[in-house]
Amino acid sequence: MAPSLTADAAASLRQYIDDATKTDKPELPGAILHIVDANNNILFTHGSGQTTIPTAQSIGIIHSLSKFVGAIAFLRLVERGFVDLDDPTVVPTLLPELAAQKVLIGYLEGEDGKKKWQFEDRRGDITPRMLLNHTHGSGHTYLNPLLFSYLQELGIWDKTNEVADPYGTILASPLLWHPGTHTNYGQGLDWIAVLIERLTKMSLAEYLQENIFGPLGLGTMGFEPVYGGDVLSRKENEGKFWPRTLKLDSSSVNMDTTELERKLREDAWPKGKYHAGCLGTGLLSSAEDYARLLVILLPQNGGVDPATGYCLLSPDSVKEIMTPQLPNGIRNNSRSIPASGASPIVLPVALGAPHMDPNGSFGLACGVQGALRTLQDGKQGRREGTVYWYGAANTEFWIDDEEGIVVFVNGNYYPWNDQAWMDFVAGVEGRIYEGLSK
Q1: Mean pLDDT over all residues of the chain?
Q2: Closest among 318, 297, 317 to 306, alpha carbons compared
Q3: Which uninterrupted H or E stretch holds 98?
Q4: Is residue 411 domain-shared with residue 430, that is, in the same domain?
Q5: 134's torsion region: left (phi>0), alpha (psi -120 to 50) or beta?
Q6: Is residue 53 pLDDT above 90, yes or no?
Q7: What is the pTM of this model?
Q8: How many domains does the chain contain in total?
Q9: How confident is the model over 74-123, as pLDDT tens digits?
Q10: If pLDDT is split at 50, 70 and 90, which confidence band does 341 have?
Q11: Which of 69, 89, 219, 431: CA 20 to 30 A from 99?
Q12: What is each CA distance from 396 to 41, 155, 173, 370, 425, in whole angstroms?
């Protein structure tokens, strides 16, 4: 039987969301919760906020939720024989810049006070799978202090980081570990973006539109204007943009204007050599469209859209994405995401913490829940095998195969991992699972 949410649970969720966003001293600037079943039937949707009242059609910047779209896009190429996940020749052949990178192991401080950076030659091959499961050895300037310091010393970080210039950043960044020896949330999906463009000879935006967004009618999904995307300039999306905010001690400030400037590069791939598309971040979406995409990966659908019959992926590819990828020896040595140069935008999180996902793993561009989640108040949450991930503006999804539901919840504000947001999501999660029935 299809899952449903009891009337009492739905009422409790609406009240809980409103209480968190509409009181005199709100915990959150705003929030939207959208839950659907395998047929994309809406089990629950409700938005609330102080100034903006988001709906399931509101368009937000989804940051690292772009990665999961990247895994889907890449697995389509694997299915069609363009590339193999475990082929060690792919990187040296198609990504020679990555193949040439050495491993940064630290620095010595000279008598003049300047850092003398120490490197080792890379040991071991890098495969496409490693780029997708965070084991290829890269870091992230927002999350790894050593890499952050290195790019600062080069004098480029202000304009060359994963948000301002993803392609320039991956070209300038050395590795931090030897491939396959360490788990670290890094720059792999931005290399996947380059790889997709070089394999297809298409721009990433064109490839995604032709293979995913267009066939599924996902009209709110596409790249941010800063990466050349036109989603917000489409007539049907007028007035739908939900600007991000930064939560301060006693107020919130806007991070975006209501109209973002679209930037196009004359040297962008494929006419030029610059890879403007990225997949570590970069996409916009509404809750409605993102959930619709995720529904296709539920086991009842096996990669086929229930509305149109469009085959997005084969069942084998869906299983590959959603299967724990990390060997036991490196599963928990660095799934935590530390803070670096991005505070107060990004705060640390320990995915191995008792009430998070202590037995979990990375899948391909996602996390895979290792055991039934028990929340701090004792309630039960998402089931073992649930696939999930986060975006930097407190945006989250999870796909619970066992219950047959997709959950999308978005606060659209910084700092990421604000304790109030983490407590809010736990409250949402507990209420959802208490109220589910079949």
Answers
A1: 94
A2: 297
A3: helix 96-99
A4: yes
A5: left
A6: yes
A7: 0.96
A8: 2
A9: 999 999 999 999 999 999 999 999 999 999 999 999 888 789 999 999 99
A10: low
A11: 69
A12: 19, 34, 28, 18, 9
Q: Is residue 13 part of a domain?
A: yes
Amino acid in position 50: Q
Segments forming the whole domain that contains residue 157: 76-200
Band (pLDDT 50/70/90 cuts) for residue 333 is low
Same domain, 232 and 364: yes
Residues near 415 by beta carbon (within 8 Å), at least 6 away in sequence: 246, 247, 343, 344, 345, 346, 347
- Among the three residues 140, 169, 200, which one is the final residue of a domain in this structure? 200
DSSP code at position 130: H
Name the 3-class secondary structure at 39: coil
Same domain (yes/no): 41, 97: no
Peptide bond into 270 cis (omega under 30): yes
| Alpha helices (H) along 1-55 | 7-22
Q: Which residues pair with 286 in a beta bridge?
A: 59
Per-residue pLDDT reduced to its tens digit, 20-30: 998 888 899 99
Please tell me whether residues 9 and 136 are part of one structural domain.
no
Whether residues 110 and 62 share a domain: the answer is no
**Cβ atoms < 10 Å from Cβ of 201:** 9
